Amino acid sequence: MNALKIKEWCDSNITPMAWQRIVMKNLDLFKAKGWGLTEANSPNASMVLDSAMVKAIKSSIREMYQMELPDSVLV
């Protein structure tokens, strides 16, 4: 899954700060994949999330914003 698409959806549908909050909540996962804080907060089009990261992000969105990340964003 493309990190930039998810970030853009969060910016447009939640708040421009949502992605940063999600990154902070899941920073250990991002770091485990070798992404620094700056890189995770500003993903580029080639940054791909694995299924565990997507699951954690979806869970964070549900928990913090009571919203669901649409499957169309994950395609």
The H-and-E topology, N to C, reads as: HHHHH
Largest sheet: none
As a percent range, the share of helical residues equals 55-70%
Low-confidence stretches: none
| Rounded mean pLDDT score | 95
The count of DSSP E runs of length 2 or more, i.e. the number of strands, is 0
Compute the separation of the termini in Å.
Answer: 7 Å
Which structural class matches the secondary elements? mainly alpha
Task: Choose one word for the global shape.
Answer: globular
The tally of domains stands at 1
Radius of gyration: 11 Å
Give the count of helical stretches.
5
Tell me the β content.
under 5%
Structure commentary:
- This protein has 75 residues and is an all-alpha fold.
- The chain has one domain (3-74).
- Helix content is 60%, strand content 0%.
- The protein has 5 helices and no strands.
- The protein is globular, with a radius of gyration of 11 Å.
- The model has no long low-confidence stretch (mean pLDDT 95).
